[in-house]
What does this fold into?
Amino acid sequence: MKKKLLIIVVSIIITAAIAACSPQEADQGMAGTVSPPAIIAEGRLLPVKALDHSFSIGGQIAEVTVASGETVRKNQVLARIVDSAEAEALLASAEREALAAQQALDDYAAAAVENLAEAQIEAILAGKRRTTRLNNYNASGSRESLARLNEATGEMDRLQELFERIEANDGLDPDEMNTLEARVSSTTANVESAKEAIDALNLRAAMNGVVTDLDLAVGQEVSPGEVVLAVADFSEWIIETDNLTEFEVVKISEGQEVDVTLDALPDVHLKGEVVEINERFEEKRGDITYTATILLNETDPLMRWGMTAAVDFSE
It folds into this structure.
């Protein structure tokens, strides 16, 4: 009986000791196998580049030259606003004025030899008139003759100075040249402005890509700045994260490889690379977040613009 009691007491002691040690040992065992928590962010699938398009002026659509889904080249005309007769008339008038201004400049430059000769003759004649007035003054000494002498002297000095200036500039008066050149510049600028007004009637592609979101029809009225279509480059795809927190963003880096799963295609796993981490924060749902851009290295034909995705940065 005493032997059985001893065995029971020893068993209780051993069980208590094991119970006291087991949690700590279990914790120590788990501590050796715990891995850092995965960083998984939500994101949205986007073409590598896309631009909205709008007219800079308002008007009525005269022609739509493309269809949704059509591939276009940069500067290709996508649509036109009804031609303005007034704009065409302004261009024609500006071109006539520019032509006349250029002709006047060319004529003046071509007449350099004649200009110099004429300026020299005028200076010589002015000198002779001054001599005559001087003789008259010496003969009469009147106030009137003195006034006429002063007038002739001023004219002579002015024409002599003009001759010397023209002579120093190969037969061209710099002041006259500046005036004519300024007129050419002004009228040329008017022509460019008129051309820009006409070109504004055309909506051109700002980049190579595919036409999307086309919302135009002949006869439709559009307002300046109203988005009427987009052009997107689908040659590559990117993911922009939506909820990468400040505590997570410090654990990722540009060039890092990631796994991407689209919510609509859960069985398709795509590889990507972090190509940019936005320096500026956004506040979303009460959290400070940063947008990371992931360039996909793989694609799937079922991918569509705007699909939601999960980005796993645990690689």
In short: Helices lie at 2-31, 85-110, 112-140, 143-168, 174-199, 246-249.
